[in-house]
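User: Predict structure, ligand fe (ii) ion.
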Amino acid sequence: MSTVDLEAKIPNNVGLRDNKRLLRALEKWQPAFLQWWRDMGPSDFNMNDIYLRTAVGVGKGGWAHFDYVKMPDYRWGIFLADGVEDRKIHFGDNIGASVWSEVPGEHRNRLRRLIVTQGDTEPASVEQQRRLGHTAPSLYDMRSLFQVNVEEGRHLWAMVYLLHTYFGADGREEAEAMLDRHSGDSDSPRILEAFNEPIDTWLDFFCFTTFTDRDGKYQLASLAESGFDPLARTTQFMLTEEAYHMQTGENGMGRIAHRAAELVRDGVDPMSVGAIPLEMIQRYINFWASRSMDLFGGEDSTNAAESFASGLKGRYREGDGIYRDARALESAYQMKVPDGDHLVDREIPLRRAMNALLLDAYRADCVRISQRWNRDLQKLGVDFQFEIPSTRFNRNQGVYSHYRFTPQGEMISESEWTKRHHEWLPSQKDRDYVKSCMVAVHEPGKFANYISPPSMGVNEQSVDFEYVKFH
Ligand SMILES: [Fe+2]
Ligand SMILES: [Fe+2]
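Assistant: Predicted complex:
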């Protein structure tokens, strides 16, 4: 087990104390991070005491500690999952070779790009969500938002640690650039599109944590297979925190849907009482699911093939031995691609289809979540089922972009799209309505009318616990 140094200025289990150069570099970056947090992080809540979980170790049980903390005092630390002795690369061309504990020269640029792209998403989401605290539907939800925010901050620390430690001067430059790009900034935006979309309602927030954080899970999981051992160990631990973000999304969406369904069951129009109709929730699902699917990149990608071949990025759960061919050289991926006004079958060599494979695993996971929401609707006796859109629907990246599809994946003409897309995607009217539902509730145990209370509180506290203190 690694030793955890919690007393250090930067809590860590990577032996920072003994690496003076690295320690100095990170201690120089720290004030810039804190300044960024104050300028771009949750606005106006830095003086509140928030009941937050802080990572204090990487052991299976008891890795986190809960207490009241003011967000700027949060102990952002650097934690890597414990290494596996004598670990070998288990996929691609280098199978059986020892994993790298330093950056292999020939893969340096590719690795740096993977780390920078992942790292950039972490502060981006904090920026996107910075004003949400003002309309929190309860103290419980406000706490969840801030928990997610501080942990995304810690994920940035994790990626910056890798850049500082393994990429020399250009790594330090990249670390600085993480705080210079800003979500939605026209001159210097965040790298990926979904991280430049504003998140100004809680429905967007819960969609984001359900669908976009879930993309994060799949990206992190495939990096956790990496032959570059420090990256594998860093992302493994990030996944522990990520699970809570997705749960926040799943629960939040489920509670908004539950509230709407209760009203429908009782014969009340949700819009007459400031709740959100199920059809409208479905349109938000369609929007955020399709934006998040774009994050997987092109279905047919030589870039993805090379990351796999070189052992940098594996398939989802590659290490669990669920794939027959660890080199991915023997089979092909079948998919339908647009050709004029119809779809034709295409076979893509498996290695080039790594993004498509990961996207399929992702979508199946999303379907599983939506089925849980649907079971609840069924229990309430409401005749409505959520659907996860096809991977073809509303895409801006990959083979389906520039073509029009229904949420079920049926190809349609531009004119039909123009006629019908408001059935499928949020209109300005929807957005204005959802915004009008956003009311702040600060009384412990009370919730805005569009969202049901959760079935339990956090860390065995009750639902009406004072999760955020206003002095
Ligand atoms: Fe994250
Ligand atoms: Fe996250």
